[in-house]
Specification:
132 residues; mainly alpha; 6 helices
């Protein structure tokens, strides 16, 4: 029913090679984590955790620990000695109007203690209390 980890790295404590090369499996496991279900259930199974489901979940957790929380890349992707490429990624610029609006509003938050804990959120205009 499910896809195995036949192509895993085979080294304890290291995310499998299968995760490195299979964006589809990574997306599936990300959803499984979000919905807290075993991969076999995602694929149509009965929802019981199999040994393979547990192995996939552990490999996914290991994979996530190897990802930089800021840029979302892995050191192996940059390191030639580990099969990577120092030019694996290029930068791109994106301007998000929502983030821009939040940054503009942040300029109005006091920098002293009275501004501690202030969170700025975006609300659809029709849901805002001052909308007319």
């Amino acid at each position: 029913m499910g896809r195995g980890l036949a192509h895993s790295a085979g080294e304890p404590g290291r995310a499998g090679k299968r995760l490195s090369g299979d964006a589809g499996l990574r997306a599936e496991l990300e959803l499984c984590e979000k919905f807290r279900i075993p991969h076999s259930q995602f694929l149509g199974g009965d929802g019981r955790w199999s040994d393979l489901d547990r192995a996939k979940a552990l490999a996914w957790a290991d994979w996530q620990r190897s990802v930089c929380p800021e840029c979302r890349t892995r050191l192996e992707e940059w390191d030639r000695t580990r099969g990577g490429d120092p030019h694996a990624y290029v930068t791109d610029t994106l301007r998000c109007p929502g983030c821009e609006l939040i940054e503009q509003e942040r300029d109005h938050v006091p920098q002293d203690r009275s501004g501690y804990g202030v969170k700025i959120q975006l609300l659809p205009r029709e849901l805002h209390r001052d909308h007319t």
